[in-house]
Amino acid sequence: MARTDERFRATFNAVLDECSALKPGDLLASELALAAQFDVSRTVIRSILERLDMIGIVQWRGRQKALMRMPRQDERLTVSASQVSPEELERQFLYWILRFDVPPGTPLNVAELARQFRVSVHGLQEFLASLSRFGLVKRRPKNGWELVGFTSDFAIELSDFRMMIELNAISQLIALPDSHQIWHRIEELDEAHRALAAAIDARFHDFSLLDERFHLTIGSITRNRFVAEFQKVISLIFHYHYQWDKKDERERNAAAIDEHLRLIAALKARDETAALAAARDHLGTSKQTLLSSLRIHALS
């Protein structure tokens, strides 16, 4: 992909946003993790890292990519006004809320946000209307939109709803025949978790992406359009919040891998009771991690 390609430019700017949420000295995720996060090839990520290294934002030495300084606004690349996909808009907007500490009650400047996210004003209005179902935004009494925000109460309600969705999905998954494709995906998850556990000292930053993949795989069994919409939002929120709390990150991620493997083992054994118990324990831990990340972020 050429460096003048719009995809490269948009992803480069997104990586700059990622760097802006870090502090000098912090390490960026692996190339594989970045490629998955921004839905591009590793070749694109390597080209971006080369540019960041060249202009002194990142020092790239082997597998280690350290942030050297904060990016400047004039280092962003110009991107044409071509429209982003609804999925990309959703990801960009939630990233903006969750990573840049937009406070509850903030009025949303639709025209400015439409330019920032490269969508039409009408398209953003429709998106905000759809997002209002999740309680993150609401219409203002005298027109316009307001950010409701991500509070502890929201986190608790979200975690409890996630518990209901996933326990139901696990019961459905256990009942599927051996020929169903989900069992191949469960085997792949088992292998991926064991590989990450074996290299946890060097790769513990990669866990959030594997966690996202794990929960989306389980949730994919539920053939319900309403659940599917909520799952996307739940997945993104947990994915980004999991990266905020850096305290004991390696140990916490290693423990979560063990919890996942316990659930995977129960699923492979077709033991519904053990699988539900493992899921309740893990989702309870995830709930506490989410609440902890909110407290950490509020203090940062």
Automatic annotation (TrEMBL):
Coiled coil, from the record: none
Source organism, top-level taxon: Bacteria
Gene3D superfamilies in the record: GntR ligand-binding domain-like, Winged helix-like DNA-binding domain superfamily/Winged helix DNA-binding domain
This protein's record includes keyword Calcium: no
Pfam families, A to Z: FCD, GntR
Residue span(s) of domain HTH gntR-type: 11-68, 89-147
Record keywords, A-Z: DNA-binding, Transcription, Transcription regulation
An example molecular function term from Gene Ontology annotations: DNA binding
The keyword Transcription regulation is annotated on this UniProt entry: yes
Chain ranges of the GntR C-terminal domain: 157-285
Name of the protein this chain belongs to: GntR family transcriptional regulator
Natural source organism: Phyllobacterium bourgognense
